[in-house]
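name: query_chain
kind: protein
chains: 1
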Amino acid sequence: MKILLHICCAPCAVKVLESLRDEGHEVTGFWYNPAIHPYGEWKLRKKALEELSEKTELPVIYDDTYDLVANLNMLLEDPEFGIRCLKCYEDRLLATARKTVELGLDAFTTTLLYSKYQAHDDILLIGERAASETGAHFFYRDFRPLWGRGITASKKMGLYRQRWCGCIFSELEAEKERERKKEEGKR
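structure:
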């Protein structure tokens, strides 16, 4: 099967790519992540994917859409954790489904299904809805069992590893969590 793999970041893609290839699928990567802030972070993550692409001979299509104002407006509609995430999932998965149809590929999936920090069931529903809206096929797989091995493999590859999901709100939440843990460690 020819699969378009939406890639949120290189570390999350390492074992997902390996798993799909081991199953005999032909994989093309797709970079579309307009919610990553700040722009410098977006560039670091894109560069890491370029490195992974070179190391694994993964063809990648890069959609360099980065409309800060539009993305912030989308996130500000309801910035509460969970709700804003659904909008972000929907944006990325719908773009991936459309690209799948445009390229005439068999199916699409996402590395979001790899992370134990993402809302897995919501990603599944949104992926299926994007498929229904576009006529694409959503290839579902629970990649979370690959989590630990993926972290180890991405570190061995020397890939840049981020400390938050992507949006400016998740950066703030991650920083507050680091501060909380630091304070607990002082006690």
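note: Residues 83-103 form the longest helix (21 residues).
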